[in-house]
Amino acid sequence: MTAWRPWAGPGLLGGERSIRKEEERRRGIFTRRAAVLGAIQLGAFGFLGSRLYRLQVEEGARYATLAEENRVSARLFAPPRGRVLDRNGKVVAGNRLNWRALLVAEQTADLNATLETFSKIVPLGDHERARIEREVRRNRRFVPVILREFLSWEEMARIEVNAPDLPGISVDMGTTRIYPETEHLAHVVGYVAAPAESDVGDDPLLQLPGIRVGRAGVERHHDRILRGRAGAVQVEVNAVGRVIRELDRREGIPGQDVQISVDTELQKAVRAKIEEGTTAVLLDARNGEVLAMATKPSFDPNIFNSGVSAAQWRQWTAARTTPLINKATNGLYAPGSTFKMMVALAALEAKVARPGDIVSCPGHLDFGNNRFHCHQRRGHGGMNMRSAIMASCDVYFYEMARRVGIDRIAAMANKFGMGVDLDIELPGTRRGLMPTRAWRQAQGKPWSIGDTIVHGIGQGFYQLTPLSLAVMTARIASGRAIQPHLTRAIGGRPARGSRPEDWPSLGVPEADLRLIREAMWAVVNGGGTAGASRLPAQYGQMAGKTGTTQVRRVTREQRERGFNVSQVPREWRPHALFVAYAPHDNPLFALSVIVEHGSSGSGAAAPLARDIMVEAFQRLGPGRPGQRVAEAPR
Amino acid sequence: MIFERRLLTRDRGTGILEKLWQIPWSFVLLLCGVAAVGYVALLSAGGGNPDLYAQKHAIRFGFGLVMMLCIALVDIRVIARFAWLGYLGGVALLVLVLLHGNVGKGAQRWIDIGPIQLQPSELMKIMLVLALAAWFHRASWERIGNPLFLIPPAIAVLVPVGLILKQPNLGTALITTMVGAAVFWAAGMRWWKFAIGFAAAGVAAPIAYDRLHDYQRARITTFLDPESDPLGAGYNIIQSKIALGSGGMWGKGFLQGTQGHLNFLPEKQTDFIFTMIAEEFGLVGALTTLGMLLLVVVFCYLVAFRSRHQFGRLLAIGLGTNCFLYVFVNVAMVTGSIPVGGVPLPLISHGGSAMLTVMLGFGLLLSAYVHRDVEMGPMRE
Fold it and tell me: E.C. number, please (chain B) (predicted)?
């Protein structure tokens, strides 16, 4: 084989020897340069090695954490919400199974065809259809989209039977809140709704879609207890977020049941007796348990669960009758004559009057240039404390107030739970207003003796809730500083406060209280203002006090013409009040009733109070099947 | 002594069996080892299913091996004779790909030749090394000192580089330039000319940056601060570093790499295959792989030092540098040391075109080794 020499030509001068010399030189240069190149490349490999060492060993732990964060995603799942039970164990806020149809878009070849088939079983409206298509577009293809909630048994069965024709559609079970008593207990139990932005704080549970939190009443007060603790499942996810497998599961702590003291049947019976604008609060006189708390109108809390429509919301908030507001805790009224016991007790405490001291009532009291009228225009004649309460003589209490002064009256009222914060489990309960000299002066106005005189009969600046009137009555009856409360048991364990001994004494002399109780007994049973509202004999005797509060000023002209409430428009008529406890010799029940524009405490409120008392005795009185008053729950 | 060996060489160059005997089988075994690492990595990339990547990889390597051995038997002088023809063929393919090629990911261009997709830019690097080696083979030290002599090879580098930039594929263009520069350097180009060249490049870089495509600029800026855009362009680098780092010293085990198997790693079977290895087999596995590839490069240098003719030396040094750049750019890329460039890891990454060109290069290298002692004609002044 002859060598082919493309570069053959004139050789280097000097012939073969010179060529070889040159070749050696060239080779030497190549070797040096290749060594440099090789060193650079070896250095580069060394750099890569050190880089790997740094990433994998020195920073390995950090990157391992990052990889774990990539890989592992914690998913929360909601524990079942605790139920709310009434005092007899009846469920008043429970969980209902919610069968939902879900669609996983990637499991169906033709979305439209599948939806078409589905709507033959469960008709889908155009609006619904649009929502589903929007959600399918918005989510990743493997994320289930809710087609329809609250499926009936029949619908569910038909979906299951037709499963082969419904690729990607499955039925799953969730829960939803249900209030079997609808509007009857709405103000007490409250309702749940989706958490607001501000609620979503420390509890990760609240970030779950579909979660509900208590927004009012017991549901809100005991929300943490009812809610429980979120369970968590750790899943491995891939780069697009699809769950690959479950790594770890931690069960949540289910919400605990809360038992409240209200008797549902009694509550319904009370609600059946009252009309719109009326509020009644019935407490256990010995321990402050709320047995019934009724006001009309109310609302159906179930509506909040699925979301309240704008129209519904407007209707509720615009209504003058304020159905969403619990008037027992948030309605503010002047107490009228039901406040006279406080004035009497303040006078006794201040020793400005003895029970037997006589005040003469000519039908009015003149003070300065003003004349303060008694409701009895002819006058009551000579009145002592007992007869003044019994007959509700205004002049007597004008005089007592003048002697005691507003501040001591207010202090006494505070002691009986009025104008102070009450410890009830109903968020938003109002403190009300118990006027004092300092309060008025803080407004930049002077307090006159005339103001004190008017306030002696429960008129004026007072803003008190029906609940606080019931508390006053219960405290008069028991002599203890009971707090109104609803919680009887949490998770089956009895809550504190069901025994009378749990509550401290009021610190008011028993003799004073006995006098007041006697007077209140006489109001009903001794020829007083509520003589027509005696209890049937088998239930014992009721003690009470009427009240009538003006909502409009009665002018002198009207008074002279002979003011007749039946001739004025209803919204001008006075509110009718009655507070009562029974039985007189061993008080079980304490009650306050306010009938808005009921005209007369004795005419409208007292008979209603008697009917409610009868219901209470029939339901919870001694020897009754539902007798559970003050009995510690097991 | 030299004379005697030369005589021996002549005899050795004649018989096929003699040539087969000359083939360094330990190197072939090393290549098989690297390909086996690739097989295991691709098996993992396919989730344990060989049908996805690993099987094809093995078949391609088998074909490549046969091709490599065939080329190894071809006389190095014949190769040298057709070097410029090969170069022209490569340039023609580059032009063809610009006119009729398929574009993928804004960067790579290929043409379909039967069942395989060929990236002419890969082939071009080898053809360029061949042409430059042939050019400098006959050049004496004095001759290389003559600037006029350097103009034709410089043009030979710039034409394909320009065509590759036109694709546009910045990474490959830079690598091609570097491969060419290595041959220039080894051939004995004066070092101050290199210095001038680097200075010119330094001046030109900002101007070139202005003319870069947006995605190319994004790569550079992302490289400088990958965390600035974690879900955008920086995502690949961050996820790759997480995968590497979480592998630790011993790795998570075969098929246990979470980053790879949960698809956090992009293109794990091609550009990021090294990450897959490092995640599942740790630093130990990564350094072993890197060490094997280093041995491949070292072998290229051995061939260069053993060759008795300048053509063989330059060819081996060019191919070695090419192989080094593949490995360095790829590993530096996945470790976040240089911008992402779309360079495969030789013999390990999935892909027919890369395997073909890499094995072609090794065939030429083996031919240079087998024919390391042949007489290739004199140099000129």
Answer: 2.4.99.28
Q: Which of A233, A260, A287 is the C-terminal boundary of a domain?
A: A260
Domains identified in chain A, total number: 2
Q: How far apart are CA B300 and CA B296, in angstroms?
A: 7
At B4 the three-state DSSP class reads: helix
Q: Do A7 and B380 touch (CB under 8 A)?
A: yes
Chain B residues in contact with A241 (beta carbon < 8 A): none
Q: Containing H/E element for A73?
A: strand A72-77
Domain assignment of residue A5, yes or no: no
Cβ separation of B186 and A37 shorter than 8 Å?
yes
Structure confidence by residue, pLDDT tens digits, A56-99: 988 888 888 888 777 777 667 778 889 999 988 899 999 888 88
Handedness of CA B281, B285, B289, B292 (dihedral sign): negative
Q: Is A243 on the interface with B (CB under 8 A)?
A: no
Domain that holds residue A515: 264-299+325-620
Identify whether residues A231 and A337 lie together within a single domain. Answer: no
- Which is nearest to B132 in space by CA: B315, B377, B365? B315
Domain boundaries, chain B: 13-368
Q: Are A252 and A231 contacting, i.e. CB atoms less than 8 angstroms apart?
A: yes
Are A232 and A277 in the same domain?
no
- The reply to whether A59 touches chain B by the CB within 8 Å rule is yes
Instruction: Give the model confidence (pLDDT) of A124-182 as tens digits.
Output: 888 888 888 887 887 767 677 788 888 888 888 888 888 888 888 888 777 888 999 88
Do residues A229 and A287 both lie within one domain?
no
For B253, other C-beta atoms within 10 Å of its C-beta total 13
Q: H/E/C letters for each residue in A272-299?
A: HHCCCCEEEEEEECCCCEEEEEEECCCC
> Does A240 share its domain with A293?
no
Evaluate whether B273 touches B41 at the Cβ level (below 8 Å): yes
* Helices first, then strands: H and E counts in chain A: 22, 21
Give yes or no: residues A252 and A276 share one domain.
no
A174 domain residue, yes or no: yes
Q: What is the pLDDT of residues A379-410, one digit of tens each?
A: 888 899 999 999 999 999 999 999 999 999 99
Residues A178-217 as b/e (b if ≥16 CB within 10 A, e otherwise) read bbebebbbbbbbbbbbebeeeeeeebebbeeeebbbbbbb
Interface of A with B in 69-98 (CB under 8 A): 70-71
In a shared domain, residues A466 and A581: yes
ipTM attached to this prediction: 0.90
**Does residue A230 lie within any of the structural domains?**
yes
Please tell me whether residues A212 and A295 are part of one structural domain: no
**pLDDT of residue A269 exceeding 70:** yes
Output the pLDDT for position A230.
Answer: 77
- Residue A16 is assigned to a structural domain of this protein: no
